[in-house]
């Protein structure tokens, strides 16, 4: 009997070589009527409520809390602990009874059970996740099935081969053990058009990559403030699950949070400040799918960004049921195989241009259009970044504006600064450069028309 074996372990009773747990039980003159509920013995055998809770097979934190809370209430109402003889014979079990009783008398039972279930849920969730993923990805990848599914996806949603490769990279990194976080790439699915299915694709992918059914996609959707842990006690969903969806999560003005976002996307841990507990460091693999109606370029503050895989979707897909879409992407995921070199594969995607680079290109165009006012014969022999910025912006330029103008001028006027004072540009040299660039533009415009005879 398993319960008796656990009781013998708890009490550290000696057992002979050929002696069964039942014989030991009888040798000590114990009877089954003296024992409390098997759940209580199981909890004490595990070493307490937290370790016991970690071993429970439940699908939500609320159900885990319910199990912990009911176990404590059952212990408090257990009649065997009213018998002094039972208390004296089984002190470890009695100690747990007194612990629960004390919590109940002080009005802390509910809160303590809540804290315990919250702490244990991390382990339960990861255990469930691994078990479900092993079931889904138990089959060997089939190259022919992958190619067949790939063509089907391209036909339905109009994706290019590069887009498909982006999906494959994202899927494979979530399955790669000990993946280098510096090679993380988040998937950014976007498109202006409505009813293209971008959110449905994202939801199908996150449920598959978490070993779940499509209808449970809500469990894996989060927001940026939670993942960045703006609240002291927030636990990122990335610490619980294998992939997380952030739909329309990017702020309109990314300047304040962009640095923190970049750091977060290439990390594999987080600090969790659980209420009434010590701060702990948890494993937290940052595999995010972003969904949006806007181009990722609108949110990248730097010149370029390497952390995103941008996939644009404009084609309205065929009228498919959610179950059909899920099955298509399930075949894609289970049959996806990574390239031999992660670094080469990572580098093959290149970087995405950001706001800063677009701003520089705009300034370059403005300089070309206003070259007479900025570098004409009447402008003297020298100029500065601040002077050019003031003329372009018609006011006292901000620090960021001067920085953008400086970067644009360095690209346009290489080696046009004075060696003795790098703050000054030579206007005659700048004018020469502009003349050369103007000639090149005219040559590009004079396209040769090939006659049909």
Question: Which helices and strands appear, and what pairs or packs with what?
Answer:
Blueprint: H1 2-11, H2 21-27, H3 38-46, H4 49-54, H5 61-76, H6 84-89, H7 91-105, H8 109-136, H9 143-157, H10 161-175, E1 186-190, H11 198-208, H12 224-227, E2 244-247, H13 258-265, E3 269-272, E4 280-283, E5 288-292, E6 304-305, E7 308-312, H14 322-334, H15 342-347, E8 352-353, H16 355-369, H17 371-375, E9 382-384, H18 385-393, H19 399-412, E10 424-426, H20 427-445
Parallel strand pairs: 1-5, 1-7, 2-5
Antiparallel strand pairs: 3-4, 6-8, 9-10
Helix pairs in contact: 1-3, 5-7, 5-8, 9-14, 11-14, 16-19, 18-19
Query: Ends: how far apart?
Result: 98 Å
The helix content, as a percent range, equals: 40-55%
Topology as a string of helices (H) and strands (E): HHHHHHHHHHEHHEHEEEEEHHEHHEHHEH
Question: Which structural category fits the helices and strands?
Answer: alpha/beta
Q: How many β-strand runs?
A: 10
The CATH class of the largest domain turns out to be: Alpha Beta
Shape: elongated
Query: Number of helical runs?
Result: 20
* Largest sheet, spatial ordering of strands: 2-5-1-7
Largest sheet: 4 strands, parallel
Q: Please tell me how large the radius of gyration is.
A: 32 Å
Task: State the low-pLDDT regions, or none.
Answer: 448-453
What is the averaged pLDDT score? 90
Q: CATH architecture of the largest domain, please?
A: 3-Layer(aba) Sandwich
């Amino acid at each position: 009997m398993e319960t008796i074996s656990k009781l013998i372990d708890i009490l550290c009773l000696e057992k002979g070589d050929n002696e069964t747990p039942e014989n030991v039980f009888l040798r000590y003159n114990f009877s089954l009527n003296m024992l409390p509920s098997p759940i209580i013995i199981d909890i004490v055998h595990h070493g307490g409520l937290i370790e016991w809770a970690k071993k429970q097979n439940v699908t939500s934190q609320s159900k885990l809390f319910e199990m912990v809370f009911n176990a404590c209430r059952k212990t408090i109402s257990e009649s065997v602990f009213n018998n002094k003889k039972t208390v004296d014979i089984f002190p470890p079990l009695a100690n747990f009874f007194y612990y629960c009783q004390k919590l109940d008398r002080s009005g802390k039972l509910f809160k303590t059970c809540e804290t315990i279930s919250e702490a244990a849920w991390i382990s339960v969730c990861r255990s469930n996740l691994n078990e479900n993923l092993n079931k889904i990805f138990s089959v060997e990848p089939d190259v022919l099935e992958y190619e067949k599914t790939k063509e089907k996806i391209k036909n339905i949603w109009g994706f290019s081969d590069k887009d498909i490769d982006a999906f494959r990279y994202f899927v494979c990194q979530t399955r790669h053990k000990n993946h280098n976080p510096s090679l993380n790439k988040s998937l950014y699915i976007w498109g202006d058009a409505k009813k293209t299915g971008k959110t449905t694709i994202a939801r199908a992918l996150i449920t598959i990559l978490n070993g779940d059914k499509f209808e449970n996609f809500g469990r894996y959707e989060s927001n940026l403030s939670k993942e960045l842990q703006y609240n002291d006690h927030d636990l990122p969903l990335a610490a619980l699950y294998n992939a997380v969806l952030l739909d329309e999560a990017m702020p309109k003005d990314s300047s304040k949070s962009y640095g923190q976002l970049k750091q977060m996307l290439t990390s594999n841990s987080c600090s969790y400040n659980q209420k009434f507990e010590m701060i702990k460091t948890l494993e937290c693999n940052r595999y995010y799918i972003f969904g949006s109606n806007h181009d990722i370029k609108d949110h990248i503050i730097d010149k370029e960004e390497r952390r995103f895989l941008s996939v644009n979707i404009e084609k309205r897909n065929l009228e498919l049921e959610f179950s059909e879409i899920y099955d298509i992407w399930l075949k894609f995921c289970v049959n996806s195989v990574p390239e031999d070199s992660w670094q080469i594969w990572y580098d093959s995607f290149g970087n995405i241009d950001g706001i800063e680079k677009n701003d520089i290109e705009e300034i370059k165009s403005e300089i070309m259009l206003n070259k007479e006012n900025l570098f004409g014969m009447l402008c003297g022999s020298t100029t500065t970044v601040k002077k050019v910025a003031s003329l372009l912006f018609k006011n006292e330029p901000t620090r960021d504006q001067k920085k953008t103008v400086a970067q644009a001028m360095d690209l346009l006027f290489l080696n046009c600064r004075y060696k003795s004072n790098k703050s000054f540009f030579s206007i005659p040299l700048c004018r020469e450069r502009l003349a050369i660039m103007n000639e090149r533009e005219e040559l590009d415009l004079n396209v040769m028309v090939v006659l049909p005879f």
